[in-house]
Amino acid sequence: MLSSRPYLARGLYEWLLDNEHTPYVVVDAEQAGVVVPRQFVQNGQIVLNVGPTAVRDLHIENDAITFSARFGGQPMQVVVPMPALIAIYARENGVGMVFGHEPVIPQAAGGSGEGEANERPELTAVDSESHDSEGSDETREETGSKSKAKPKGRPSLRVIK
Description:
The chain is of the alpha+beta class and 161 residues long. The protein has four helices and seven strands, in the order αβββββββααα.
């Protein structure tokens, strides 16, 4: 599976522009392939204004963010590989998203192949009565087994933290 980071970055970038905010990105300048002005790197990171008035030829691709900009009057081609993108946010109010470390997805990493393709997550319906007593043996047994019992009443999804 492809990384969700470039898709979220593109969406957030457009959303910030639609709301007339200035998009900034936080970059891990220590990662391989990052091309940024080193004189502005602090604590291994750099914050870049990627608004339309600050950069030219901005491309947010699946593998990297690239654009041209001027730093201290000097033109530069900036390259930010997607794994180096830490956050994208609005300068005006700080609203945006911080990206965590993405887990390695077994299918993308070429897993062992032993039954991985056949085992898929599934949603099952639970009746609200058995879920009211969270942690009961009956609930654990239903959750642990893959029985296809018909639910009573209306099915619902519940977020469990």
